[in-house]
Amino acid sequence: MDVVAACKAFVSVSGYGSFTAGAAAARIPQSVASRRIAALEKHFGARLLTRSSRSVALTPFGREVLPSARRLVELAEALEHDAEQARLRPFRLAVPLTSPARPLARLVADARRRDLTLDPHPAPPARRAELARTLEVRAALVAVPPDDGVWRVPLGLAGRDDPGAATAVYVETLRAGRADRGTRRRRIWIEGEDDVPHVRDRITRLGDAVGLQPAQVVVTSSLVTATAEVLASTDLLLCSPAQADDLGLQWRPIGELPLARGYDVTARSREDAQRIRALPLVAPCLGAS
């Protein structure tokens, strides 16, 4: 027996003094109200109502039980309200600044169909980890070494369109020779999303190994600044294929080493992390396949 449903019928019918009116107020058929109250009486082993052809009245036992039944109904309604509010409360998710608007919108729409109201908060890598650590967001897409990540995004170097360019960029070709003295050296720009040790340090060490000058590897927090420098020169931007396509640049892998971003989820609870990992449209927001 559903005790809450039976108590709702009992409270409504006793309040209206009529099975017909009480059942209508409770939005159930009269026959259902009658069966539920009868089941409640059987459960308690005593009559709750006296019935006549025109009306019903509380028995002494019913008058004693009614306040508790009313409290149970009120608590059940409060629980349903709180559960609905919790379901609709935005799930704050820290995402990369590089996540394009269209894939993010699709992710939010898909999550709603799964009863999850996402509220994306774009932030750089260190800030995303901090937001998760301080519980300012329920979950964050954090940068991790690619072998440890749920999602992997290949990285390469992108520059202005060059139809005759090779299939890969070798960083050693950016090293200035004797004939290049006095000319501006080509630079590699590392934007904020890749300013993490497992990406930045690898490309910096590669530059040192092949003889680049320290000033030829530039770290900036602004993707706009880095892209503008690339568009205005022969410099190269470290980025994903999806970013290069969005920026109108030609992307090529790095010849000397495979490089990638890795992403995972950190969250308040394991359940929250699993819910985000299970969303198929997270990958396009990161530029992952």
Automatic annotation (TrEMBL):
Its protein name is DNA-binding transcriptional LysR family regulator
Q: Name one GO molecular function term.
A: DNA binding
InterPro entries referenced in this protein's UniProt entry, alphabetically = LysR_HTH_N (IPR000847), WH-like_DNA-bd_sf (IPR036388), WH_DNA-bd_sf (IPR036390)
One cellular component term (GO) for this entry is: protein-DNA complex
Q: List, for all copies, the residue spans of the domain called HTH lysR-type.
A: 1-59
Q: What is the lineage of its organism?
A: Bacteria, Bacillati, Actinomycetota, Actinomycetes, Pseudonocardiales
Family of the protein in this entry = Belongs to the LysR transcriptional regulatory family.
- What species does this protein belong to? Saccharothrix variisporea
Pfam families hit by this protein: HTH_1 (PF00126)
* Keyword list, A-Z: DNA-binding, Transcription, Transcription regulation
